[in-house]
Amino acid sequence: MSAPGTVRSDVAPLAVESVTLRFGGVTALSDVSFTVEPGAVHALIGPNGAGKSSCFNVISGLYRPTSGRVRLGEQDLTGTPPHRLAGLGVGRSFQNIALSPHSTVRDNVLLGRHPLTRGGFLAGGLRIGRRTEARHRARVEEICAFLGVADRLDSLVAALPYGVAKRVDIARALAVEPTVLLLDEPAAGLNATETAEMGVTIRDLADALGISVLLVEHDMGLVMGIADRVSVLDFGRLIADGPPEQVQADPEVVRAYLGVSE
Amino acid sequence: MSERVVTERSSVLVRLRTSWPSVAGVAVLLLVLLVFPVFAGVAYLKAGQYVLIGVVGAVGLTLLVGQAGQLSLAHPFFLLVGAVSYAVLAGDSGDSGDLVGLGLPPLLAVIGAVAICALVGLAFSPVSGRLRGIYLGVASLSLVFLGLYLGQSLDMLSGGTSTGRPPPTFDLFGFRFANSDPAPTILGVAIQKQQRLWYLFLVLAIVAYLLARGAVRSRVGRAWRAVRDNEAAATAMGVNVARAKAQAFTVSSAFAGLAGVMTALWLDLVKPDENEFIGTYSITVAISYLAMVLIGGLGSIPGAVAGAVLVNGLPQVLTLGATEFGWSIGTLSPVLISAFVYGAAIVLVVLFEPGGLAAIGRRLTTRQGDR
To answer: N or C: less crowded end of chain A, CB within 10 Å?
Structure first.
C-alpha cells in the first residue's frame, strides 16, 4: 500500500480539557481530560452509555460542552462552528456510514475537498477552475488507492458491500487532509477479516501520514492491537488513561466492563 | 511536457471516439432547433417557446428539489415576481400614467428581474432552511397565495387583474424582438417577432441548461447533494448547511424569475391571476413544474428538460392537433387530456422507475454518469 504524500510534521496535539456536558439533570461527561498526541492512534472506549459518543460529538463541535474546552494546538475548537472544523484539520468518519448512496465513490470522496476549494454556483456553472479541480480529482484517486477502494471510484455507493463503504467513508474524511482523524466505530459491522484489515489501515494512517487518529471502538482486540494510548470512560467519568497493557490491567477498568461483586 | 500534451490529446481523441454518438445526437438536435422556425408556422413556434419556458423553470426547480432536497411549490410566485419586475423595470407609466415604470433598457431589466427573484428567494431562505419535506412544501405554497394577493392589490406594478400591463418589447443592442419591415430572412423565411423570440428563448434555455449542468458537477452540486443526503456528514466535510440551502433556494428562484420574464414575453402580457387554482401563476402551475422534475427524474438536468417537453409540450401539441387537424376525444380538452397523461406518467414513474426519464435514458445508453 503506498502512502499518499509525505509524513506530516504540522500535526498538533488534540487536548480535551476538563470537559463537562450536561443535558438537563443528566451529566453525560464529567470533567473529562485527555490528550491525543501527534501521530498517535488513541482509542476511546467504555461500556454502553459511558459517554463515548457524547465526547466525540463535543470534539467534532456538534455538542457544546457545559464547561471545559477542546483545543487543537493553539486553536480553541469549543466555540468554532462545526462546519469550520474540517478546514482546521479535523476529519471525521461515521458509525452508520453517512455517504450519499446514489452518488459515485468519486463524488462522495470529492466532497471532502470542500474546505480546500472555493467557488459557488456561477463558478461551477461557468466551469471556472477546471484545472484545480483536476488536481483535486487526482488527489482523491490517490487517497482511494491508499484505502484500497480505487477500483470502485465509479461505482454507486448503494452498490458497495458494507466493508467497502466503510472504507470510502474514511477516504472521504481523509480527503479534507486532516491532521486529526476522528473515527466513530470503524469496525462496527465488519467481519473478523475486514476488522483486521481495518486495523492495519488505521495503523498505516498514523505511521505513513503522521496524522493523529482518535477512534471510538467496541472491538477490544482491534483497540488493544493498534492503539498507542487508550482512554476509558465509565458513566461519563474518565477512569483510566494510558498504554493498552496498563489499561487492560487496571482494576477499575475490569470492574467497569465485567462488574465485580463487593 | 510534450509527452503530456500528446497523452492529453490522445485522451481527447479516445473520449471523442467513445462518445461520438452522443456528440452527433446533440449536433443533430441543435440543427433541428435552429432551423425549426424555417419549417414551422407561428402556432408551432408559440408551442415550442412555451416548452423552452418550461425548460428554464424546470431546470431551476430540479436543482432545488432534486439536488438540494428542498420541496418547493413556490415556483409560480417567482414566475410572477420575474414577470412583474421586468415590466416595471423596462416599462413606462402606461397610457393613463398610473403604472410604475422605470424605462430601463430591456436587457438590464431582465438581469434586474432575475436578480430581484434571487433576492426574494434568499429572503425566504430562513424559512426554507428550517423546514423539510411536506412542511416546506406547504410553507412555500403560501408564497403563491401571497403572490395572488400582492398581484391583485398592487396594480400600479402588476397592471391589475382586469387589463394587466403589456411587457416592454425585448431588445438587444438595438435589435428589437418585434415585427419589422423589411425583416431579415433565413432560407427565404422572414424572421419576425415569433421567430426572434424562439431564438432568444432557445439561447436562454441552453444557457440555463449549461449553467445548471456545470454547477451540478462542481463543488456546489456536491455540497447540495451532501446536504440533501446527510446534514451531519455534510457539516463534518466543511459544508455550511444553512448557506448551501439558502444558495439553492436563491439559484432556483433566479431560474424561475427568468422563466417569468419569458412567460411575460410569450403571453405579451403581464396580468395577475384572478384565483389561485387557474392561471399563469397558480397552484396548477406549481404542480406542473413538480410533475416535470418528477417525471424527468429528481435532480437530473436532462430529465428536467424531458419533463418540460412532456408537461408543457403535450397540451400545446394536442391543442394544435385539434385546431389544425381536427383531433378530438369527445368533450375532453387538450389541457385535461394532458393532465391525465402526465398524472399517469407520475404514477408510473413513482411505481416503476423512481429515477424518472433520466434513469430510463441512462439505462438505454448504458452509461453510468452523475445524476
So the answer is: C
* B318 within domain boundaries: no
DSSP codes joined into one string, B327-341: --BTTB-HHHHHHHH
The tens digit of pLDDT for each residue in B262-301 reads 999 999 999 998 888 888 999 999 999 999 999 999 999 9
What is the tally of structural domains in chain B?
A: 1
B-facing residues of A in 141-200 (CB < 8 A) are 154, 156, 172-173, 176
pLDDT at B12: 64
In a domain, A103, yes or no: yes
Q: What is the pLDDT of residues B316-369, one digit of tens each?
A: 888 888 888 877 777 778 878 888 888 898 899 888 888 888 888 888 876 544
Domain ranges, residue B162 = 42-274
User: Measured between CB atoms, does A60 come within 8 Å of chain B?
Assistant: yes
Note whether residue B178 is domain-resident: yes
Closest CA to B237 of A101, A61, A242, A82: A82
* Chain B contact probe: residue of A53, A56, A60, A83 with most B CBs at under 10 A: A83
User: Three-class SS of residue B45?
Assistant: helix
Taking the Cβ of residue A127 and every Cβ of chain B, the question of whether any pair is shorter than 8 Å is answered with yes
**Which residues lie closer than 8 Å to A69 by C-beta, 6 or more apart?**
A17, A18, A19, A76, A77, A78
Contacts of B370 in chain A (CB under 8 A): 103-104, 107
Integer angstrom CA distances of residue A160 from A103, A104, A165, A196, B67: 11, 10, 6, 19, 22
CATH number at residue A41: 3.40.50.300
Note the ipTM here.
0.91
Q: For B125-139, how does the pLDDT look when each residue is reduced to its tens digit (9 = 90+)?
A: 999 999 988 999 999
In-domain check, residue B89? yes
Q: Could you tell me if residue A9 is inside a domain?
A: no
pLDDT tens per residue, range A230-240: 999 999 999 99
